[in-house]
Specification:
It is built from 19 helices and 13 strands. The protein is an alpha/beta fold and about 550 residues long. Helix 11 packs antiparallel against helix 19.
Amino acid sequence: MKNLAVVSNWRLLSLAALLILTACGGESGDSAGETGVEPPPLAAAGEFTRNDDITAMTATELQRAIVAGELSAEAVTSAFLERIQRLDRSADGPNSVLEINPDALSIARQLDQSLAAGGEPGGLHGVPVLVKANINTGDAMTTSAGSLALAEHRATSDAHVIGLLRAAGAVILGKTNLSEWANFRSNNSTSGWSSHGGLTRNPWRLTHNPCGSSSGSAAAVAMRFAPLALGTETNGSIVCPAGANGVLGLKGTMGRVSRAGVIPIATSMDMVGPMATTAADLALLMRAIVGSDPNDRPTMIRFKKYSILTPEFTGQLKDTRIGVWRSYPGAGTNPEVDALYDRTVALLKDAGAEIVDNLQIDQGDLGSRAYEVMLYEFREGINSYLAGVTAPGAPRSLEELIAYNQANAERVMPHFGQEILEAAQAVTWSKVDYAKALNEVRTAANQQLEGALQRHDLTHLVSVTNGPAWETDLKNGDSFGIGSSTLPAITGHPHLTVPMGLVDGLPVGLSVISYRSNEFRVLRIAAAVEKLAGPVSPL
């Protein structure tokens, strides 16, 4: 099997091969001709080096170069489009980008014209951003959640986060593939697979899984198809793919970022968050998307005390007191992961952090109890969202979605079923039952997570985000083994993952958790680990 480190040096592709690397379709059979989206112009052989030099830059570097006039937004956008076309859809590519924005180059030109006319640049001026295909964009692109049922659904308006990205000057480059319905369709699902986009593969080892459900966003950032991407998380769907693909991902505090215009799973846990290759870039994107929104009630709560600062690490962590969670789910199952975790904790200690080791936090059956809450919230949320879909033939309710999948089972359910959708439809809870269950789950989770932070007077809690990626098995589904996402997902605490190294040649992330609204704290530890442990990349 060919690693993408080899593919990244692939320069001499035939014209015929390049023409089939369209940005839409996957196993669903879509093509640029069928969707009306033309591929970007082919780069001449002499342009490959320049384009790869551009795509190797961080988002922070790109924004500064564009504002300084050293690069144009159009040249930057063209470089990333060419790279996607060249490397994503081949047999040796990760298949991470579901759809290219046909207006991307036009947007970039307009940004260049605005800057030349003396316009004020935004914080992301000219920087390409990929977004997960369950986030509304009020443009020519579809918002499908990876499902063929919504393959023709075009939102009438932007999600709140997309509006903020446009205001910041970002170029919305395209939509990324994902686990269909954000991995909330079947207990036997394969992360990274959708009926609309096919299978996303892990860039580090194409036979292995990228984790879900923001699999395309993480794989695309790892492959430098964009310097930044948005994912969404209910429980682990930002941090697990980020960890498994060797990039940084942040699920912020509940209420930091609006979910309005995002296809929902569970309103009590859903979040939108950034992915990037550096802590500084993660902060750059996070700053652009935070803000209150009257259409998403948690964002109106005025608990946010701290700003999203640019993370800096000066070599010392003397003002930090870090708790080391040793009883995380899957702890002790992989000695190499344990050794990597120990090494990373030692690096933080050597940098001056005070370490409180061997914290025993027991999440018990909170995962299964939260799942029951999610079923209720999913039915309510998806019925509301689908009621506003206007695409011909698209389902307008969960009941109609289930019927669509049954009628199109050969294309939609060739590998696994829809028992989660059916379980959500069958929920019999009253609103009182739901409110009681949600309160009990949140209280129990806070007793464990917030309790540990306060009892030990911690500034941070660290854990292991993921084990090395498992080999993809479409017949039998996922093989999750290690994870730390459930408690911060239920409680709404910020949870960041940063690469801490490789196990068996595959990346493993360090989870950093802190108090609500303390994103600046987790970003600071991410910057420290980035410097102390060194970067990882499949390229």
